[in-house]
């Protein structure tokens, strides 16, 4: 998937554990792991808002789009 989740980078910068982050955001550690490992299919804006509030960052600090390695770009029409 061309969206890379960088929660681990922001947690490391703040020396915050996944458990502490999960508690402050209102998620289970298992759900944070799903987000961190890029297995989530969607993120609610309210969750993204809470993550940014807790980490003091912008959504772009947590999510990054990168082109697919094979050069094929998926468009909304091709799904």
From TrEMBL:
It comes from the Bacteria. Coiled coil: none annotated. SMART domains: HTH_XRE. Residues 13-62 form the HTH cro/C1-type domain. InterPro entries: Cro/C1-type_HTH (IPR001387), Lambda_DNA-bd_dom_sf (IPR010982). This is Helix-turn-helix domain-containing protein. It comes from Pseudonocardia lutea. The lineage of its organism: Bacteria, Bacillati, Actinomycetota, Actinomycetes, Pseudonocardiales.
């Amino acid at each position: 998937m061309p969206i890379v989740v960088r929660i681990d980078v922001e947690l490391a910068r703040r020396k915050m554990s996944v458990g502490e982050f999960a508690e402050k955001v209102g998620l289970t550690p298992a759900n944070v792991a799903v987000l961190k490992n890029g297995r989530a299919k969607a993120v609610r804006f309210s969750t993204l808002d809470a993550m940014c509030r807790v980490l003091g960052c912008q959504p772009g600090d947590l999510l990054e789009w990168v082109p697919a390695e094979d050069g094929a770009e998926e468009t909304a029409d091709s799904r």
